[in-house]
Amino acid sequence: MTEANRTIEGEYRKRVLIIAYYFPPMGLSGVQRTLKFAKYLPPLGWKPTVLTVTPTGYFAQDESLLGEVESAGIEVIRTGSLDPTRAFSKRNNAPVVVKMPSEPFRKLLNITSQIFFIPDNKIGWKRRALRAALAFMEREKVDLIFATAPPYTDFLIGAELQRKTGIPLVVDYRDAWYDNPYHFYFTPLHRYLHARLEKRVLRAANKIITINRRIKELLLRRYRFLRYDDVLIVPQGYDPSDFNVDSEALPRTPKMRFTYAGTFIDKRSPKFFLRALKNALARTPEMRGNIEACFLGNFREENRKLVTALGLEDVVNVVGYKGHAETARYLLASDVLWLIIGEGKGEDMMSTGKLFDYIGARKPILGCVPEGVARTVIRESKAGNVTSPYDEHEIEQAIQKLYRDWKSGALPVPDNAFTQKYRRDILTAELARIFEFMT
């Protein structure tokens, strides 16, 4: 650490207000980027204060991540929200874990939400968040505002704060907004309003960050007033401390373990992998007693029924949702980590956070992904196998090859120089340099 980055007499040189609806104790991958930035900013001279929502109903809660917030001493401001999560009751103000609905019902809820809420169903948080932020900024000197999205309501809050205070704003795209393949525009008016809101945010922002080049290209192409240097790339990453685990604590198995960590939604389904696995077992019967398909995360009832229908009950291990710390242990105790990203317009820009945790575990990756960002990263690892997400024959061949490599002790390991560039601490140092230029 350079002298310029050190704190002076135990005090931080500058303060950043981070706007993030998704934050621990909420779980799932959307919270980790923000948490890790907040964790690693203080040694670089920046004191983070996170503005987020009061604990509410959500599909996953992660006490291990909340413990990380507390142990790092991250200052958190929480405020209520008038969004649909208020429909979930809370016991003693504690967060409530909500059962994930079936995929058809989830899609219906998502479409309905996008019809009635613009830019998203978190817009009911905006007024309360603004009030809390402005009250905080009257008490404390804030040097920079950092808003991360989705939800895109976070961006609207950041833009409004920038307009009211003149404090520099940095916006962080964890996913595309207008061009997001999972967005549904019910009418041309919906499409117009989203484009107008995004344009307003981008004009207010002093710097724009995206997780990959594809999202940057889309922004530059759509909004011609942006210059190339207005948009910077800080990719997703992994925290090396998450993988500093005592080997005795790992949930090992003598079988070859394929592990998927995450949730299946929309075009991402386990059925193609499971069918390919069934075919591989039929072709090579010895595999049945020597292979395990492990699923970490919310595994819907329809997927359990598929496992039964394919006769894979003795091969599939549904662990269920685990906190991030326990998930890391399973990744380290696995032989191959697999990923699916669906095919279709816009899927090429997806570089899901779980891919970078896979990289941090330094395991070979089976990527059932289309041409695009994720496939490029997996190939660069020099330890990946890529297939079409829906080609069962191609996936079966990849499973067979990986099994042979496992038997012969020849499974590849990602290159160390490759994995190092995705460390969260290194990426946060890049973010801190951007902050310094803005203030």
Q: Assign the structural class, choosing from mainly alpha, mainly beta, alpha/beta, alpha+beta, or little secondary structure.
A: alpha/beta
Order of helices and strands: EHEEHEEHHEHEHEHEEHEHEHEHEHEHHH
CATH fold call of the largest domain? Rossmann fold
For the record, what CATH class of the largest domain applies?
Alpha Beta
In the sheet with the most strands, the strands line up as 4-2-1-6-7-8-9
Shape annotation: globular
Domain tally:
2
Helicity range: 25-40%
Write down the overall mean pLDDT.
91
Main beta-sheet strand count, sense and barrel state: 7 strands, parallel
Description of the structure:
Helix 8 links the parallel strand 10 and strand 11. The protein starts with 13 loop residues before the first strand and ends with a helix. It folds into 2 domains: 250 residues, Rossmann fold; 181 residues, Glycogen Phosphorylase B (Rossmann fold). The N terminus is likely disordered. The protein is an alpha/beta fold and 439 residues long. It has 15 helices and 15 strands.
